[in-house]
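Agenda item 2: zinc ion complex prediction
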Amino acid sequence: MTPLQFDLSGLAEEAVLALERRLEPAELQHMMAGSAVLTGPLEVQLSVARHGSGASYSGTVAGEWELTCVRCLGPARQRFRATLEGDVPAGAPTLDATEEVRQALHLALPGHARCRADCKGLCPKCGANRNEKLCGCAV
Ligand SMILES: [Zn+2]
Ligand SMILES: [Zn+2]
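Presented output:
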Protein backbone atom coordinates (compact mmCIF):
# COMPACT_ATOMS: atom_id res chain seq x y z
CA MET A 1 0.00 0.00 0.00
CA THR A 2 1.25 3.47 -0.84
CA PRO A 3 0.06 6.39 1.33
CA LEU A 4 -2.33 7.32 -1.48
CA GLN A 5 -3.89 3.95 -2.11
CA PHE A 6 -7.61 3.77 -1.37
CA ASP A 7 -9.79 0.75 -0.80
CA LEU A 8 -12.67 0.62 -3.28
CA SER A 9 -14.54 -2.39 -1.87
CA GLY A 10 -17.35 -0.06 -0.78
CA LEU A 11 -18.22 0.50 -4.44
CA ALA A 12 -19.82 -2.92 -4.51
CA GLU A 13 -22.75 -1.49 -2.52
CA GLU A 14 -22.49 2.25 -2.99
CA ALA A 15 -22.73 4.07 -6.33
CA VAL A 16 -20.65 6.92 -4.94
CA LEU A 17 -17.84 6.58 -2.44
CA ALA A 18 -16.44 9.53 -0.50
CA LEU A 19 -12.82 9.02 0.49
CA GLU A 20 -10.67 11.22 2.64
CA ARG A 21 -7.10 11.05 3.84
CA ARG A 22 -4.82 13.30 5.80
CA LEU A 23 -1.11 12.78 5.17
CA GLU A 24 1.94 14.07 6.95
CA PRO A 25 4.18 16.26 4.74
CA ALA A 26 7.08 13.81 5.04
CA GLU A 27 5.05 11.09 3.32
CA LEU A 28 4.75 13.09 0.12
CA GLN A 29 7.83 15.29 0.16
CA HIS A 30 9.56 12.95 -2.31
CA MET A 31 7.01 14.04 -4.93
CA MET A 32 7.97 17.66 -4.81
CA ALA A 33 9.99 19.37 -7.51
CA GLY A 34 12.78 21.88 -7.07
CA SER A 35 13.01 23.66 -3.76
CA ALA A 36 9.36 23.31 -2.78
CA VAL A 37 8.93 21.96 0.74
CA LEU A 38 5.64 20.72 2.13
CA THR A 39 5.13 22.37 5.50
CA GLY A 40 1.71 21.19 6.60
CA PRO A 41 -0.48 18.11 6.42
CA LEU A 42 -2.06 17.32 3.07
CA GLU A 43 -5.77 16.75 2.83
CA VAL A 44 -6.89 14.50 0.00
CA GLN A 45 -10.60 14.24 -0.73
CA LEU A 46 -11.97 12.01 -3.44
CA SER A 47 -15.40 11.15 -4.69
CA VAL A 48 -15.48 7.90 -6.64
CA ALA A 49 -18.55 7.28 -8.78
CA ARG A 50 -19.44 3.94 -10.29
CA HIS A 51 -20.83 3.97 -13.81
CA GLY A 52 -21.35 1.07 -16.17
CA SER A 53 -18.49 -1.34 -15.72
CA GLY A 54 -15.92 1.11 -14.40
CA ALA A 55 -15.69 4.16 -12.18
CA SER A 56 -14.23 7.62 -12.19
CA TYR A 57 -13.12 9.96 -9.47
CA SER A 58 -12.71 13.63 -8.81
CA GLY A 59 -11.48 15.52 -5.81
CA THR A 60 -8.90 17.83 -4.35
CA VAL A 61 -5.53 17.82 -2.66
CA ALA A 62 -4.83 20.77 -0.38
CA GLY A 63 -2.01 21.78 1.91
CA GLU A 64 0.73 24.27 2.54
CA TRP A 65 4.19 24.58 1.08
CA GLU A 66 7.22 26.77 1.32
CA LEU A 67 8.75 28.03 -1.90
CA THR A 68 11.59 30.42 -2.63
CA CYS A 69 10.59 34.03 -3.26
CA VAL A 70 11.84 35.03 -6.72
CA ARG A 71 12.58 38.56 -5.54
CA CYS A 72 14.30 38.27 -2.16
CA LEU A 73 15.11 34.52 -2.17
CA GLY A 74 13.47 34.25 1.24
CA PRO A 75 10.81 31.68 2.13
CA ALA A 76 7.41 32.13 0.52
CA ARG A 77 4.81 30.15 2.40
CA GLN A 78 1.53 29.50 0.63
CA ARG A 79 -1.58 27.43 0.93
CA PHE A 80 -2.59 25.55 -2.19
CA ARG A 81 -5.47 23.50 -3.50
CA ALA A 82 -5.36 21.40 -6.65
CA THR A 83 -8.02 19.32 -8.34
CA LEU A 84 -7.78 15.62 -9.08
CA GLU A 85 -9.59 13.65 -11.72
CA GLY A 86 -9.25 10.24 -13.26
CA ASP A 87 -10.69 6.89 -14.18
CA VAL A 88 -10.68 3.66 -12.27
CA PRO A 89 -10.33 0.47 -14.30
CA ALA A 90 -13.36 -1.83 -14.12
CA GLY A 91 -13.26 -4.08 -11.08
CA ALA A 92 -10.12 -2.55 -9.55
CA PRO A 93 -10.07 -3.30 -5.80
CA THR A 94 -8.05 -0.20 -4.97
CA LEU A 95 -7.28 3.21 -6.38
CA ASP A 96 -3.71 4.43 -6.21
CA ALA A 97 -3.78 8.20 -6.69
CA THR A 98 -0.03 8.70 -6.23
CA GLU A 99 0.75 9.67 -9.80
CA GLU A 100 -2.34 11.84 -10.11
CA VAL A 101 -1.51 13.73 -6.91
CA ARG A 102 2.11 14.17 -8.00
CA GLN A 103 1.01 15.73 -11.29
CA ALA A 104 -1.58 17.94 -9.59
CA LEU A 105 1.04 19.26 -7.17
CA HIS A 106 3.44 20.05 -10.00
CA LEU A 107 0.74 21.89 -11.95
CA ALA A 108 -0.22 23.89 -8.88
CA LEU A 109 3.35 25.06 -8.23
CA PRO A 110 3.57 28.73 -9.15
CA GLY A 111 6.45 29.63 -11.46
CA HIS A 112 7.14 32.89 -9.66
CA ALA A 113 6.41 32.66 -5.95
CA ARG A 114 6.62 35.77 -3.82
CA CYS A 115 6.90 35.94 -0.05
CA ARG A 116 4.32 38.74 -0.19
CA ALA A 117 2.69 40.76 -2.94
CA ASP A 118 4.83 43.84 -2.32
CA CYS A 119 8.19 42.13 -1.73
CA LYS A 120 10.92 44.70 -2.35
CA GLY A 121 13.56 42.13 -3.29
CA LEU A 122 17.31 42.31 -2.91
CA CYS A 123 19.36 45.42 -3.62
CA PRO A 124 21.12 44.78 -6.95
CA LYS A 125 24.13 46.70 -5.66
CA CYS A 126 24.86 45.44 -2.15
CA GLY A 127 22.53 42.44 -1.95
CA ALA A 128 20.69 43.65 1.15
CA ASN A 129 17.16 42.38 1.67
CA ARG A 130 15.17 45.56 1.15
CA ASN A 131 12.21 44.17 3.05
CA GLU A 132 14.36 44.29 6.18
CA LYS A 133 16.43 47.43 5.85
CA LEU A 134 17.06 50.44 3.69
CA CYS A 135 20.64 49.98 2.51
CA GLY A 136 20.86 53.52 1.06
CA CYS A 137 22.33 52.51 -2.28
CA ALA A 138 21.35 54.80 -5.13
CA VAL A 139 19.60 52.39 -7.48
ZN1 LIG B 1 10.41 38.15 -1.10
ZN1 LIG C 1 22.12 48.35 -1.38
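Discussion summary: The chain has a mean pLDDT of 93.
Owner for follow-up: CH.
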